[in-house]
Design goal:
- With about 800 residues, the protein is mostly beta strands.
- Among the domains are: about 230 residues; about 180 residues, no CATH class; about 100 residues, Immunoglobulin-like (Sandwich), CATH 2.60.40.1930.
- Helices cover about 5% and strands about 45% of the residues.
- The strands form seven sheets. The protein has a 29-stranded parallel sheet that branches. An eight-stranded parallel sheet has the order 3-6-9-12-16-20-23-25.
- The longest helix is centred in the N-terminal third of the chain and has 18 residues.
- The chain is elongated, with a radius of gyration of 31 Å.
- It starts with a helix and ends with a strand.
């Protein structure tokens, strides 16, 4: 047959094919064949067009047919008014629109999509979709409030995505992939999109991982002109390698380079620049404040209670690099975590979430959760320079996450944490499963129970994976109970690389009344780590085997072991060749002496004659007495420590805040008997935290406690100038008993004291008191002290 005839026949067949395509009209008023979008789609064949007339369609549309166009009258008239008048309303029951897996060549144009639940628009694996001239707003999801892209190809043209919320990631757009799929997202450079004012736990407006190539976002408007990964976040997993390139013409807002204030009675329409014009939601304040590495700004949370039901707080509260979130002190600022009413029970409820942020600070507040058995106070992913201080976290139910959980926490400083009253059937207090290095000091982890019993392995109540160095100073681990019969309650392990030997320094710590039916406390690492355990007290712990398991180059000095276990210490037998342990114990009190140590074949134990094997004769008392494991007058551990403390790396004060060395000789254990309060403004050992700072020594105290204060320096163009400062003292009932005036113009440290008396000079009764540091009339931070008469 001649070539010309073949071409003629082909054209005839194509013309018949086009004639078979149908345009199906949807009119909610009943003026045409269909009143429902879904009914028209179900009746469609490949190549058809569903043309929707104006109206609000309460539907959850699912497209399962390829080569389909879903259009409003905007597509035929180019009148953008039809976008606002043609609405798909998801009724907060499901997605407004979903493209099923492998459904290709779908065109969506000219709609407003709102009130979708579980993402406004979901594009599933292998689908190919073009979305043009649509508005997506006021939608809610776990991931991707506006659009959830799961291994799909999508082209966006003239799309506006705003005022959406994602509980976890990607308030505007979330693009992630199951293994084996990748995301291919493109933006029209001429008919530009706008993405702004969305909220999420991470990646406020945009989150993507596993793209096929670089993603260039051509945008008319974005939330800010120069976004950080707080607003737009990308990750490379599964071997993909790409960059996120943003071409932005306009900003929805300018971040505020000034401290901001939040109040329970505030209003998010305020400017937030002063307590009188405070904002209402913490999330909004962090969203608006500038991230400034040269002058770190602070979100001040004023006294009061913050929750979803009381004042519409948004959880998780997303943290931002170079921003401090500072409450008015423990006892003054309390955040109550409540689950989102539309969140399914399998989602973890998170209070603060920080993802790939650096130099984040959270301090000066209490946190708890209600109406959930799956909660977390702070969740972090790859955090650097994480500062947590003066935080009280209690009554969480961390069955899926720990109270504090991080994948990475590099160069961290945790100071003054109280984590208590936790019962879980899975997790516990702290879980760092990637890398931790830094310092944990002056903190308490107590009253925790893991009820999980398994044939495999139960998560410890405290599990921290170390990468490099960790210092644990002046901390208490108390009343921790594991029901499982083959695990331990406290674990500090390591990430190990051939070129690295990790270092553990544990000093002035009390580990007491811990129940772990196998090993109670476990310090371990490969590649012969160095471990220094100095002036620690291990007492009252219970287990079937050992209290403490260690390996590497271990030195135990000035410590006390007096526990209800067959052995006090076990050397961990390492399976790798070249992994040996040298354990040296001197100037310590160890129940059973050298017989209280179980050695491994690849270990060398040096038990020096400076040690004693006897009852340490603690002061005693009930479980509520913070000093019951301090030394009594008759204790043989008094003045029995090493005469030379050089190189021990001790803080200058003991666990009670008294001088660490007294009468020219150090005691064994974490408490120094009969010592005076420590006050030393020049001590180089204590790392200086960012101002302001409040410390009290001794604590507990009987006669007086010394008060050490560091006020904020007057810097950053005088925007934070200190005009007044004081310490307000309250009893546990919230009644003010004393005010101590400070010098607001004095830079650096200044000292005062409290003699346990009220304003009238009367002695206060025994109990817990709150020291609240106020700067410019605003609570800066708080400290608990215990007065013992």
């Amino acid at each position: 047959m001649p070539r010309a005839i073949w071409i003629t026949l082909l054209c005839w067949v194509l013309s018949l094919s086009s004639l078979s395509s149908i345009t199906r009209i949807v009119d909610i008023t009943g003026g045409d064949q269909y009143t429902s979008i879904q009914t028209a789609i179900n009746a469609s064949s490949p190549g058809d067009t569903v043309l929707v007339y104006p109206g609000r369609y309460f539907e959850n549309v699912i497209i399962s047919t390829s080569n389909l166009s879903l259009l409003s009258l905007e597509s035929t008239t180019q009148n953008m008014a039809y976008v606002d008048s043609t609405i798909i309303d998801g009724s907060n029951s499901s997605q407004c629109l979903m493209i099923n897996p492998n459904i290709q060549n779908i065109s969506i144009r000219g709609f407003s999509l709102t009130k979708g639940k579980g993402a406004c628009t979901a594009l599933l694996e292998g689908s190919i979709t073009t979305i043009t001239n649509c508005k997506l707003f006021d939608n809610w999801s776990g991931n991707g409030g506006g659009i959830h892209i799961a291994g799909a190809t999508v082209h966006l043209s003239g799309v506006s995505i705003f005022n959406n919320y994602a509980y976890n990631m990607g308030g505007g757009i979330y693009a992630n992939s199951p293994t084996g799929y990748v995301n291919n997202i493109s933006f029209d450079p001429s008919n530009r999109c706008s993405i702004y004012n969305n909220r999420a736990g991470a990646g406020q407006d945009f989150f993507i991982q596993n793209a096929t190539s670089d993603v260039t976002m051509y945008l008319d408007t974005f939330s800010v002109l120069n976004p950080s990964n707080y607003h737009a976040m990308f990750m490379n997993y599964y071997g993909t390698n790409y960059q996120l390139i943003m071409d932005i013409q306009n900003a929805y807002q300018t971040e505020i380079d000034h401290d901001l204030y939040v109040s329970p009675d505030g209003d998010d329409s305020n400017d937030g620049l002063s307590p009188e014009t405070a904002l209402k939601t913490i999330h909004t304040a962090i969203y608006r404040i500038a991230s400034d590495s040269l002058c770190q700004r602070t979100v001040h949370i004023l006294p009061g209670t913050y929750s979803r039901s009381v004042n519409q707080q948004i959880f998780p509260i997303a943290l931002k690099s170079w921003v401090k979130v500072v409450g008015s002190g423990i006892g003054n600022t309390e955040i109550i975590l409540e689950p989102h009413p539309q969140l399914s029970s399998d989602w973890s409820v998170i209070l603060f979430l920080t993802s790939n942020q650096a130099n984040v600070t959270v301090s000066g507040m209490s946190m708890t959760s209600v109406n959930t058995d799956n909660s977390c106070a702070i969740l972090g992913r790859k955090e650097y320079n994480l500062h947590l201080s003066d935080l009280h976290m209690y009554d969480f139910s961390p069955n899926s996450l720990a109270v504090l959980q991080f994948s990475y926490a590099i160069n961290s400083n945790w100071d003054g944490l109280i984590v208590e009253n936790i019962e879980t059937s899975r997790w516990g207090f702290v879980y760092v499963d990637g890398c931790f290095n830094g310092t944990i000091q002056n903190s308490t982890f107590r009253n925790g129970t893991s009820t999980l019993v398994t044939t495999a392995w139960a998560y410890p109540l405290i599990s921290i994976t170390v990468d490099g160095n960790i210092n644990i100073d002046n901390c208490t681990f108390s009343n921790l109970v594991m029901y499982d019969d083959d695990t331990h309650a406290v674990q500090f392990g390591s990430v190990q690389y051939p070129q690295q030997s990790n270092s553990f320094h544990i000093s002035n710590c009390l580990l007491n009344d811990i129940v772990g039916y196998d090993t109670t406390i476990f310090f371990y690492s490969g590649n012969n780590p160095s471990m220094h355990i100095t002036n620690c007290t291990f007492a009252g712990n219970t287990g079937n085997t050992y209290t403490l398991m260690v390996n590497g180059n271990v030195n135990v000095t000035n410590s006390i072991f007096f526990n209800n276990t067959p052995y006090q210490i076990k050397v961990n037998p390492m399976a790798n060749s070249g992994e040996t342990t040298t354990l040296t114990i001197d100037y310590s009190c160890l129940l059973g002496g050298i017989a209280g140590i179980q050695q491994a074949s690849s270990s060398t134990v040096t038990y020096l004659g400076t040690n004693i094997n006897t009852n340490p004769l603690f002061l005693g008392g009930d479980e509520f007495d913070p000093l019951r494991y301090s030394l009594s007058l008759s204790s043989p551990c008094i003045n029995s420590g090493t005469p030379d403390t050089t190189g021990l790396g001790l803080l200058p004060y003991d666990l009670a805040g008294n001088l660490r060395i007294w009468n020219d000789r150090i005691d064994m254990g974490c408490y120094e008997y009969g010592s005076e309060p420590w006050v030393d403004s020049d001590d180089p050992v204590v790392p200086e935290l960012p101002a302001p700072k409040l410390a009290a020594y001794p604590n507990p105290f009987t006669v007086f406690t010394n008060l050490k204060v560091v006020l904020p320096s007057n810097q950053c163009n005088d925007k934070t100038r200190v005009t007044s400062a004081s310490i307000e003292i309250y009893n546990i009932k919230g009644q003010k008993v004393r005010s101590i005036t400070l010098d607001p113009g004095k830079a650096g440290e200044q000292f005062s004291y409290w003699d346990g008396r009220d304003e009238a000079g009367r002695q206060c009764s025994s109990g817990i008191y709150l020291l609240n540091l106020k700067v410019n009339g605003i609570g800066a931070l708080s400290k608990k002290v215990t007065l013992v008469r």
